[in-house]
Amino acid sequence: MLELKNVSKIFNLTGSVEDERIALDNVSLQIKPGEFVTIIGGNGSGKSTTLNIVSGSLIPDSGKVILNDVDITKMPEHRRAAYFGRVFQDPLIGTAADMSVLENLEIAYQRGRIHSPITWGFKKADKEYFIEELKRFDLGLENRLGQKVGVMSGGQRQALTLLMATIRHRPTIKMMRRDYILFSQKDKVQAANEFDAELETNKIILKDKLDALKNSNLSRKERRIKAKEAMFEFDQAMLAKFDLTKQILLLDEHTAALDPKTARKVLELTNKIVCENQMTTLMVTHNMKDALTYGNRLIMFHSGHIILDVSGKEKQKLKVDDLLKMFEEADEKLINE
Amino acid sequence: MEVLDIILNILSSGLPCCLLALGIFLTYRILDFADLTAEGSFLLGACTAGVMIFNGVNPFLATLASIGVGAICGTITGVLNRYLKIPKLLSGIITLTASASIALLIMGMASGNAGLFKSQISFNVEKGGASQTIYSLFTPYVYDEAFGIWRVLSPWGEIIKIAIMAAVVALAMLAIYFFFGTEYGMAIRATGMSEKMAKAQGINTDVATIICVAISNAIIALAGALYVQEAKSASAITATGYLVIGLASIIVGEAVFGKRSFKNWIISVSLGSILYFIIVTIAIRLGLPTEFKSLLYAILITIALCIPFIKNGVNSIHLARKRKSEINKLSEKGDTKDVGTQECK
């Protein structure tokens, strides 16, 4: 669960009080796992600031950002990247232009891991996996793995960024342990012991399976496949118990720079990915219709406050006109004050 | 044997500059970091290796030490830029300025020097002498009976020197190629292209930048060490103008040999500096006064920078001609529907 607690952010370039611009004023927000939240609001209402505070690009002046009951307000941006996938408004900054599609995907696949200076960046197994993932996208990208991203269109680059924000290497045992100790809300020593004990039992199960395979009279190829299966089961057992951090997707007006047709396509793709993986998603958009069509919760920002927060059936009843009306009312209220 | 002499001359000044160009390439092209530290680390690399050899230290150790000094220079520039938020250009200038004094201090460590500083050093390399360079360790000598001294066997002494230089350059190129193909190398390249993307993909861009600048300056200092062992002397103004030579090599190399892939790019950059010295040598051989060298550098860089623009122009002329001939062919058939402009009615 992602939580913002009394977050405030003031932008002030000159240092004098007159030039202050309050981007967020004491905002509190709770987002449950699996929610697809669309965020709307006028320019400077604080919606992008919220996303930047969640992702760590901005540090709030006061208040806390809490992920799975752990305060991550001070966690640096690159460390948080393990828990958040991001797509930006500008298609040009989400991908590295001078690198091939494959290289970009490899970098995304390493997200949240330690980049080793001695391991070769390309792995054959990864390539096969990428091709499979790209095929699901149905953009023809799987045939252009070697092509430089710089020559591709904005829509294609944004789709690629979307894939890069959602694929991620399964965490290593070391990472799982680190995150479990960080997020489990238990005493550090206790959590570490618990993890180690579970790891030990799973290792014994795996070892037994492998020993059984060694003594069996299967062919070498079959044995290898079975061994892979056993390893996979081991991973799954560990992940089910200890992978507390499900990926959260942060989309910052990611279709705003695209033409309407491409924007629609990218949005459909987003919806498909989010629904298939049941990802927790925060999507900032200027398009009210999109905000109503997609997602199961809608939040409206106005001058640093949340003025509307609806979900489920209530959201389905809403229409664009209702939203416009609310905008006007909020504006009037502000003027009256 | 004049031609051989010229070729050997070009290579012996060009090969250290290959390393210089590669070092500058890492910051200027990969990281998009205009790093002015280059001249400073070249100077310090030359001084460190020079002084250590002067004092009779093993030349390989001296070369390693200068690599270390270069890496320290780069780290300082990187830290100034990343953690103290000083703009890239300025942090390079700061380290460059400081390096001038540090070079005097390092040269002051030459044995037999009474004061703290020294503005230049030079050493003699002879068979069995205290000062040996990485080249002289492998140089064949012949005994000259008339004068009773050992002389370098010509031209094999020169050729072996070039071979050692080429081996070092090749090693550096291989190291760069493999490092930038690893996970961390790719992370550094991503940092140079889009820092926001790199951060979102969990790369610590501060550390990546500092490491890349440090590697770059270590390679440049290695170039300085190779240079000083060839020139057998170093002074406070040794490095002046080398930044321009490095940049020009990169630009000339890219323009002539292309940058299709990373491998191709590294090779282009290194060949660029050889090509650069070939052009300069030819110009001077043709009678260009050495005073005009700087002017020649400027003209060369301008031409190299224009090459892509000229290529585009030639291409568009070619395309226009092709289109015209197609229109002609079609109009001969009496069919202009598909090509050409549509008239207004």
Question: Could you explain the architecture of this structure?
Answer:
The complex is a heterodimer of chains A (337) and B (345). With 337 residues, chain A is of the alpha/beta class. Chain A is built from twelve helices and ten strands. In chain A, strands 6-7-8-3-9-10 form a six-stranded mixed β-sheet, with helices on both faces. Chain B is built from eleven helices and four strands; from the N terminus they run ααααβββααααβααα. In chain B, α1 (2-30) crosses α9 (242-257). Mean pLDDT of chain B is 88; it is low at 339-343. Chain B has a domain at 2-235. Chain B is globular. The longest helix of chain B is centred in the last third of the chain and has 40 residues, at 293-332.
List segments of chain A where confidence is low: pLDDT < 50 over at least 5 consecutive residues: none
CATH top level assignment of the largest domain in chain A: Alpha Beta
* Major sheet size, sense and barrel closure of chain B: 2 strands, antiparallel
Total strands of chain A: the figure is: 10
Which oligomerization state do the chains in this entry correspond to? heterodimer
- Report, as a whole number of angstroms, the end-to-end distance of chain B: 76 Å
Radius of gyration of chain B (Å) = 25 Å
